Description:
Layout: E1 8-19, E2 25-34, E3 39-46, E4 51-55, H1 69-81, E5 85-92, H2 103-118, H3 125-135, H4 139-143, E6 148-151, E7 156-159, E8 167-172, H5 179-189, H6 226-232, H7 234-245, E9 250-253, E10 260-264, H8 267-277, E11 285-290
Parallel strand pairs: 4-5
Antiparallel strand pairs: 1-2, 2-6, 3-5, 6-7, 8-10, 8-11, 9-10
Helix pairs in contact: 1-2, 1-3, 6-7
Amino acid sequence: MSGAGIFAKVNLxxxxxxxxxxxxxxxxxxxVPIPWADVLDVRVKPGxxxxxxxxxxxxxxxxxxxxxxxxxxxxxxxxxxxxxHDVLIRLAKRVPVGxxxxxxxxxxxxxxxxxxxxxxxxxxxxxxxxxxxxxxSDCPFFLDPRPAWMxxxxxxxxxxxxxxxxxxxxxxPAARLSTAEVFRVFDERQVLTREAEGDIHPCLLVRGDxxxxxxxxxxAFDNDLAQVVFDLCPRSRExxxxxxxxxxxxxxxxxxxxxxxxxxxxxxxxxxxARNLRGAAPGEIAEAFxxxx
Length: 293
């Protein structure tokens, strides 16, 4: 099996605006891919539209039916192309679930991409994007993962050219969060930002305008969901503070999960902090990555 071409993601900032008529919120986010991947193998043969998902050891708790995004992606592709194939998916999880890193969305996008390639590219790129957007707000990003400004409900992506490479330490608490629960609590509080859509400031300050010491403005990493995350998972706040204490020039929450990230001046520094925090408490995960451009 190969994980080539699969990424996770970090939302360097996330602004959440009003709920739209379709039930989703307007979003504004700078999102970057990181080379943290599930191991996913997709195979196809002529058939009657059957989809089988085989989960690797240790992920038996994941849904294997229609609730699994990879399965839904395969079924959506078969529906769009006439159900003339059977699909076999083997999945071993590496990216933590409920962390805000987009592992499930990445898997779904990879299934779409692989099926399209294996079946001779029967779908136009626009159809693939629409299909990805129907699966979840993060899925379109993973069809072509590169630094982007994400807006709409996540399906509108503007590439950020020459975006700087960042050294990140990412720490995931043992407790994981449901995206639906995070947004439910957020909606109860009705704390909205005016910068949710159409105003990239202050997120794009990460592209330049740094301080005299090369540091990045802390507000460039604001996440409107952070307070909800910290209330639901106090350990996330503790780990965010630990990253800052360890020398991160900025730190924040990614997406609507429990994972936190710290931005460091060098990969060696990020990697050293990740090693020190790895396993600090049972079930916690810490990794370091350098983002691409």
